[in-house]
Amino acid sequence: MKLSGLKPIALFEASKGLLALLVALGIHELAGDNLQSVAESLVAHLHLNPASHLPSIIIDASRSLSDARLGLIATGAMVYSLVRFIESWGLWHQVRWTEWFALVSGAIYLPAELYELATSPNLLSAGLLVLNLAIVLYLYLTLRVQRKTHQQ
Fold first, then answer.
1. Cα torsion angle, 113, 114, 119, 123, sign
2. What 3-state class would DSSP assign to 47?
3. CB within 8 A of 94, min separation 6: which ones?
4. Digit-coded pLDDT (tens) for 119-145
């Protein structure tokens, strides 16, 4: 099967939706548990130093998360997941409004990704920026070509 350029983007969006769904289900599963204890166990399991920057942020954040906040976070992750799945389906089937939606939603992240790369450059930030730029540029060119063909 020959993939159009939109199909790999659709698969990428579906993978983001799946990841968000897994996060939502994980958060839902953790509701009611002692989150600080869970965070400390996770940090220990990963052999991280609990006093270092990122693990300490995770442990500190786990102290302040109530079940109500966890519910809101899980709901937000579910909504995000649903949006990504709808976008993915639309891109796979070349539904034009989802192409516009993907262009705008990808472009929204560019300033934050540029800021992240400028303030704390690393390979992951650079890779995400390049990938997002490629997707946004491809969608822009696709929509531009469609518009020109439609006008003729």
1. positive
2. coil
3. 4, 6
4. 989 999 999 999 999 999 999 999 998
Closest by CA position to 6, among listed 129, 140, 126, 113: 140
Q: What is the DSSP letter of 2?
A: P
Q: How far is CA 91 from CA 6, 136, 140, in A?
A: 6, 13, 14
Q: Under a CB-based contact definition with an 8 Å cutoff, are residues 59 and 36 in contact? A: yes
Yes or no: say if 7 and 91 are a contact pair by the CB < 8 Å rule.
yes
- pTM score, whole prediction: 0.77
Give the integer Cα–Cα distance in Å for 99 and 103: 6
What dihedral do alpha carbons 18, 24, 30, 34 form, nearest 10°?
120
Query: Which two tokens mark 111?
Result: 């300033």
How far lies 25's CA from each of 43, 51, 76, 100, 104, in Å? 20, 28, 11, 29, 27
